[in-house]
């Protein structure tokens, strides 16, 4: 069975994903898809297999999200990621929170910036990444220095690997010039 699966995936088979079309025959990217139907001219019936992040080759799960590129998506070929799959990818984007709001999962991160203009400058840095990736977050600036970024795939109302890729790229920004310095508390004698 395992060889048949591999032969199907690596042959010139047409692999259709019910959750993402953004993977190649040489490498499966998880957990961007939950189910694959492989059809080919091979002498056996099409295989329908369930996948989870745990069933993907170990090397693939080690690919850093920031080195990946967001793939174009549409509601027809994507399904929202479940909480378990999202939790596994969350480990690769430190500082981000997995939030369930109105029944949908999203990523959220907040910063306290030096001042209002630094918040706007930070938005511009994030906007540059978002434009490059073709994947856009919600940006909030409140109380003059509270920046909050929320990411989810709007077309499906939930999370996909694209959201984690964008979060990882945002994490690579040098934020030193934008953020307020923590005030060290002195010990009272």
Summarize the structure.
InterPro entries: PCD_sf (IPR036428), Pterin_deHydtase (IPR001533). The chain is an alpha+beta fold and 189 residues long.
Beta strand %: 15-25%
Unreliable runs: 1-59
Helix and strand composition category: alpha+beta
Mean pLDDT: 74
Distance linking N and C termini: 71 Å
Q: Return the string of H and E elements.
A: HEEEHHEEHEEH
Description:
By secondary structure, this protein is of the alpha+beta class. It folds into two domains: 1-63, no CATH class; 67-181, Gyrase A, domain 2 (2-Layer Sandwich). 26% of the residues lie in helices and 20% in strands. The strands form two sheets. It has a four-stranded antiparallel sheet, covered by helices on one side. Strands 1-2-3 form a three-stranded antiparallel sheet, covered by helices on one side. The longest helix is centred in the middle third of the chain and has 18 residues, at 116-133. The chain is globular. The chain starts with a helix and ends in an 18-residue tail after the last helix. 25% of the residues are buried. One of its GO terms (biological process) is tetrahydrobiopterin biosynthetic process.
């Amino acid at each position: 069975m395992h060889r048949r699966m591999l032969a199907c995936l690596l042959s010139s088979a047409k692999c259709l994903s019910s959750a993402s079309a953004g993977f190649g025959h040489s490498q499966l990217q998880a957990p961007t898809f939950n189910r694959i139907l492989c059809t080919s001219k091979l002498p056996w019936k099409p295989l329908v297999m369930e996948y989870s992040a745990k069933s993907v080759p170990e090397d693939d799960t080690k690919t850093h999200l920031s080195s990946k590129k967001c793939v174009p998506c549409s509601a027809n070929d994507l399904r929202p990621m479940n909480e378990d799959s999202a939790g596994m990818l969350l480990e690769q984007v430190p500082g981000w929170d997995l939030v369930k709001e109105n029944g949908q999962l999203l990523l959220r991160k907040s910063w306290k910036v030096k001042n209002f203009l630094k918040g706007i400058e930070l938005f511009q840095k994030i906007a540059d990444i978002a434009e490059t990736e073709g994947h856009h977050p919600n940006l909030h600036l409140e109380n003059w220095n509270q920046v909050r970024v929320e990411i989810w795939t709007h077309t499906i109302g939930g999370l996909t690997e694209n959201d984690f890729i964008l979060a990882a790229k945002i994490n690579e920004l040098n934020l030193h010039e934008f953020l307020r310095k923590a005030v060290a508390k002195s010990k009272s004698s």
